Amino acid sequence: MEINYALIGTRIRETRKQKGLSAEELAEITNLSTVYISYIENAKRKPSLESLIKISNALEITLDELLYGNLLYNPTEYQTDIDLLMADCTSMEKRYIFEVLSAVKNILRINNWHLSTKHSYGTDDNDLY
Predict the structure, then answer these.
(1) Do residues 68 and 74 make contact, with C-beta atoms less than 8 angstroms apart?
(2) Cβ distance 12 to 22 under 8 Å?
């Protein structure tokens, strides 16, 4: 199995931005250089396990959450994304989002739609069929 470092970098960048941190702030918290953070986020360098642990601790997420998409088994895939998306929502907004997600889920299942088996984050290969 090949590790998708671009996906890991994207997750780090997205989570960092959702937390309102700049790359410089993340570098300071983790005691890593800003350049190294940039290299990881842009998949120009493979982060060490130690660096990934520092980054996940600084972003207050688990390594599983950081690595999802690379794991064969992940029962909480997208949970962090959903939690972060809804964190600043009002109760009414949360209810609307829940109703929309429920409707979409039902439509997908009624029509037996599936995502393609290719897991290429950020490309058009994940079209519904």
Answers:
(1) yes
(2) no
- The count of residues in the chain is 129
Q: Which amino acid is at 60?
A: E
Q: What is the pLDDT of residues 15-72, one digit of tens each?
A: 999 899 999 999 999 999 999 999 999 999 999 999 999 999 999 988 888 887 665 5
Is residue 127 a contact partner of residue 116, using CB atoms and an 8 Å limit?
A: yes
pTM: 0.57
Contacts of 69 (CB under 8 A, 6+ apart): 4, 7, 11, 77, 119, 121
Residues 80 and 15: their CA atoms lie apart, in Å, by 9
Q: Cβ neighbours of residue 53 under 8 Å, at least 6 residues apart?
A: 63
